[in-house]
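Troubleshooting entry. The earlier prediction with zinc ion gave an output that would not parse, so I re-checked the input for stray whitespace and re-submitted. Clean input:
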Amino acid sequence: MREIRIFDTTLRDGEQSPGCSMNLKEKLDMARQLESLGVHVIEAGVASASQGDFNSVRAVAKELRSARVTSMSRALAKDIDSTWEALRHAKCPRIHLLLPTSDILLESRLKKSRQEVLEQTAEMVRYAKKLCEDVELSAEDATRSDPAFLAKVFETAIAAGATVVNIPDSIGYTTPEEYGNLIRFLRGSVKGAEHVAFSSHCHNDLGLAVANSLLAILAGATEVQCTMNGIGERAGNAALEEIVMALKVRSSYYGADTDIDTAQIYKTSRLLSTITGVKVQPNKAIVGENAFAQESGILPVGTLSVNLSYEAMRPEAIGLTTNHIVLGKHSGRHAFNDRVRELGYSVTLDISNTLFKQFKDLADKKKTVSDRDIEALVRSILAQEIPKSYALERYVINSGNTITPTSSISLTGADGARVEKVAIGFGPVDASFNAINKIVGKQVKLEEYSIGAVTEGRDAQGEVSVKISSEGAVAKGYGLSTDVIEASILAYINAINNLIYETTREEQ
Ligand SMILES: [Zn+2]
């Protein structure tokens, strides 16, 4: 049985997708969980892209113990230098170089000849190799490159010391058979191929990312690049959970498996959607709400005689517990803490106390408190875990269909001083945001605003996510309340606090 290494790029390729950006703390939480999941490599970002990216790659590199940490870098000396500066404290660092190889990109972007690309490959792999033992070369747009030229690029990279070669289907263009054939050709013709790992990187534009990755494995790829929940630019990347479970359930067919702790899959998936606020579609394979729905009796009784060959796909395999204990206002601290732990959160005693108090308040308002409610509570508390430049004191809204909405907001600053302002707006939320802008005295632009109900029912909690920008800096905020106006105000203040925290920290 071959062991396929999982290269997770949730924090790099995944994080680049709309709505999925994460701050440093969120990236660290996610990286720790990915390490518990047992992924072999974690791509933490593009360190040379900005100071913020550099900081988060360095923080992840310093934090992890067993997983390899990598950062993508253009094949340029100055980018490699800053990438290494961010990675050097990692227990197992890897420099990940990216260089286009298709004629289209060579002409339009790189403006270089094939010969020049070969020279740059040799020179930059050698340069990176002097800094780091583990060097990966990705041939951008590999599936639209001339296979013979691609083979030469990899041969050059291997001769210069590359340890991994990656064949990205950057635009999600290839088909399973074609991709498998390309990898088989490269493994057969590249000199030194037997000494390096072959890696796949597939995008889902045609819905084939996972299928392409599995064909790559059949053709001899030893490493697969993927993201949790399949997040990523455009239609996303190959979904980690689907590849891992396909190999687990059909390991004898593929002759391969991974050493991923699959019981951590559900937890990791939930953590990602809780952090980003991007929900998983209900019918998503493996981690969707309905993926194991027959277990809760949606299918007619006759079909419940579960086919034993699918034993590996029982919900427990991905860490989904089926005995949901419903929590309510009579639930004790012990039962509540157990539930929080089972959901994958390890919180400090301080947070645990706040959490339990908020749970009790909520249980007074709602008949039952679901897992979703608890996750939302944890998320809102973790979101508040930054220095608060402003906190909500009180708000008064005056709104209706025949008057101009007015909001009066009172905030307490970090120094304890209270400031109150009044503003009008298109609606009560807009008026409130305008009043907050007056208090903080900043030109703040609202980039994204999303509102949703945590659970069904009229007593559901409302959750609001916002993204704001000011003078080039961007920040996110999260708010939770059974009153959606209050949730909106809390999310906006949380985003302002994040903005102030991130910008002052970067200046240090
Ligand atoms: Zn990609």
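This one parsed fine. The radius of gyration is 25 Å.
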